[in-house]
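Co-fold these.
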Amino acid sequence: MISIEIKELTKKYKNKIAVDNLNLELNQGELFSLLGVNGAGKSTTIKMLTCLVTPTNGDAILNNYSIIKNKNEVKNIVNVSPQETAIAPNLTVKENLEFIAGVYEIKNKKDKVSELLKEFKLNEVEKQKAKTLSGGWQRRLSIAMALINDPKILFLDEPTLGLDVIARKELWNIIESLKIKTTIILTTHYMEEAEILSDRIGIMAMGKLIDVGTSQELIKKAKARNFEDAFIKIVTGGDINESN
Amino acid sequence: MKAINFAKRNIKELIRDPLSIIFAIILPLFLLVIFQQFKIPSDVYKIENFTPGIIIFSFSFITLFTATLVANDRNSSLLTRLFSSPMKPMDYIFGYTLAVLPIVILQSILFYTVALFFGLSFSVNIILSIIVAIPISILFIALGIIIGTITTAKASSGVGSIIVQLVAFTSGMYFSSDMIGKTFNSICKILPFSRVLDLVKGVLNSDYTNVISNVIISTTYIIMVTIIAIILFKNKMNSDNK
Ligand SMILES: Nc1ncnc2c1ncn2[C@@H]1O[C@H](COP(=O)(O)OP(=O)(O)O)[C@@H](O)[C@H]1O
Ligand SMILES: [Mg+2]
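Predicted complex below.
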């Protein structure tokens, strides 16, 4: 079953094309990683798919709902962990989750909140104001908040930025456990992360989706020794020599 | 329900950073007390006229800190996250308004209580004038939402204090506007601040001169400003219009 169908999605700013004619289909339960250097257009793509930014051209159908025509329906079935940590600073960790549960009018609010507290190991800091947490913990909370409505489609914009090795591994486990039920698009700068988690990987450069495939397919196509080299070759068009 | 959920969060946010609330209560209270010491021989400083003035003046501080609350929220990525949630523009406007209303009521009760000590005689009119003040406070909250929506967090308090000044000079709380001159007087009559003050004062003192025109102009302002707040806020919910 097709979960996301992106058709000619384009975003132009005054003198800049942030996303240029993106076409892509994702299956239900697929985990897709978007890679690309800073400014490639990853966040803008996610912002369009979460109805934050209006496309200049094109459309996307998320579980049969158009991001242009059915904004309200889309907003109910998706959720996003934005690139910048998005939490209410003066609320405690638990209050943040309760608040976001209220935003999505979650029925079994109590259970859902305690489930997320446990899953993200946030119990020990649940009474702490969010602004007093370290960056990594704020990030965890921000991601936990994105799961409050059991989204059918989840967008994670650089989710593991600022997390330590252990927290990153833990988050990977959580993401793994969400697959199948949830279609996930994540962006990252960590090649390893994309390789381990993704079913397929898309590489963006200057607003264009220049290559899509499994990590193995991309390595083969680029005639590279490993995925990192493949990424560099694809993005630079082979201008930068392999590092030996 | 989404609005109430949002209001709850806003109340917590305000109470846990209470400096602005304290300011909005203490400063007008200070003015109320201090001007009673001066015994200025003018009708506007009589306790039954000056207390409603202080109430409207305190509402301009509500504008100030509503603006700061909204501008700070816009600055944070929390609001960006909420903009991709199913919350509607009205949920935000109601959420901000409901969070600020308890402070409005608290202010009015407090100022009247203090006024009783300075010789205001107790009557049911006090309660009626508080009831009239509540919809009037919507005007000031909506002005705050507008300022918070169109200015940055840094600029919001500066722009908000324009409202504080306008209330001080055009409401007639310190001096009657016809003392200054014709043009100034007509500006005061076009702006809503003297109108709303006259309403609150009128109810307190059972003086209903010009009540029809005051009600019409005040209501028009409240509705218009609220609609503008909703439209501007809705527009900002699209990241392209940041
Ligand atoms: N609101 C905006 N106005 C103008 N240019 C923008 C805006 N948002 C993003 N851009 C530009 O679009 C390009 C893509 O940005 P972005 O999607 O954030 O990239 P990435 O997330 O891949 O780093 C960048 O060049 C960025 O400067
Ligand atoms: Mg980005």
